[in-house]
């Protein structure tokens, strides 16, 4: 079966966590591109000029909370359909509540983000078999 390449935006400000995401996506071994934004401002800029199939979003960023960014995405007609995975060191009940307002597939701890979890999330987003 031929796959359409996946375009993913990962919003993460910590270098060590970006390396972890790169490793997991490499192990996923699926054609496509993974781009990184180190802030919500960078993510907004990327989303303004490119189309993505999925967003992996850290919750704690220097310029805001990923959970609040979900609300922003949900109000944008072009961006609201993009599935999002929130990945946080410390998921909170508030984060889950805000996630319900957007197209959030899952809320995970960073320890939970591995290749099997990525495969499950991509299947839920209809981005792989």
Automatic annotation (TrEMBL):
One of its GO terms (molecular function) is protein-glutamate methylesterase activity. One of its GO terms (biological process) is phosphorelay signal transduction system. Keywords: Hydrolase, Phosphoprotein. PROSITE patterns: RESPONSE_REGULATORY. Residues 7-125 form the Response regulatory domain. Gene3D superfamilies: 3.40.50.2300. It is an enzyme of class 3 (hydrolase). Its EC number is 3.1.1.61. Pfam families: Response_reg (PF00072). It comes from the Bacteria. The modification 4-aspartylphosphate is found at residue 58. This is Chemotaxis response regulator protein-glutamate methylesterase. The gene is cheB.
């Amino acid at each position: 079966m031929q796959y359409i390449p996946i375009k993913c935006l990962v919003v993460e400000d910590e270098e060590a966590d970006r390396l972890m995401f790169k490793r997991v996506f490499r192990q996923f071994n699926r054609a496509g591109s993974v781009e990184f934004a180190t802030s919500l401002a960078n993510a907004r800029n990327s989303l303004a000029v490119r189309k993505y199939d999925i967003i992996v979003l850290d919750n704690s960023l220097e310029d805001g909370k990923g959970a609040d960014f979900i609300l922003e995405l949900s109000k944008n007609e072009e961006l609201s359909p993009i599935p999002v995975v929130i990945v946080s060191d410390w998921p909170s009940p508030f984060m889950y509540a805000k996630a319900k307002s957007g197209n959030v597939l899952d809320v995970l701890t960073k320890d939970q983000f591995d290749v099997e979890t990525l495969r499950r999330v991509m299947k839920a987003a209809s981005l792989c078999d």
